[in-house]
Amino acid sequence: MRIILLGPPGSGKGTQAKLLSERLGLLHYATGDILREAIEKDTPEGRRAKPYMAAGQLVPDDIVNDIVSARFRRSDKPTRFVMDGYPRTHAQALSFDAILDEQGLDLSSVIFLDVDDEEIVHRLGGNRWTCPNSTCKAVYHTVVNPPKVPGICDLCHTPLYQREDDKPATIRKRLQIFHESNDELIRHYRDKGLLVEVPGRGDIESIYRAIVKALK
Ligand code: AMP
What we know:
By secondary structure, this protein is of the alpha/beta class. It has a domain at 2-115 and 194-215: 3-Layer(aba) Sandwich (Rossmann fold), CATH 3.40.50.300. It is 47% helix and 14% strand. The strands form two sheets. A five-stranded parallel β-sheet has the order 2-3-1-4-7. Helix 1 (13-24) crosses helix 8 (204-215) and helix 6 (117-124) crosses helix 7. The longest helix has 24 residues, at 168-191. The N and C termini lie close together (11 Å). It binds adenosine monophosphate. Adenosine monophosphate binds at residues 9, 31-32, 35, 52-53, 56-59, 64, 85-86, 88, 92, 165, 174.
């Protein structure tokens, strides 16, 4: 199973990718997490990516494409995976197609989690809390899906944090950027016959079931 999850920031890609990964045994490949880790470790890619991420902008295609290509060219390349946050532009989709082709891998499905902008602003506007533990990465919402103890991860008990780019003004910017490249991406995968649209509203388990149904 090789899946790409598309959708606006806050559509639930991360949450659903984590479930798909745990339940179907797929590698959860999240470029946002990889870039945040690179910034934390202060690597050359991290230093280049940092100002774009803090401003809610996309990191230049060449940085992200190089990171992904290098991972898929390793001898322990992922062969069963769910992509979360990559590709995000048409140029990235073309680069990923080329790498998959080179490595003899094809995609099973591309799922578009459809959520409208107002819902996204409501979801992310200061309400999203994330677990920083890299082996956990659980995401909570203070209204819809709160942790049992405020500010603490239910699963690994690490103190939660709010992402810098989840501030309301940055969210609008991220949504605008999302819309600028999303139509082209959707068209790319629709033309390949891989795209399935799944409404991203409702509880986590029912969205998960809709995704799994779409995969079959
Ligand atoms: P995410 O965790 O997927 O919401 O990504 C957080 C931020 O990381 C985005 O707002 C971008 O700045 C950057 N980022 C993650 N993935 C990509 C990508 N595929 N292309 C460009 N920038 C990315």
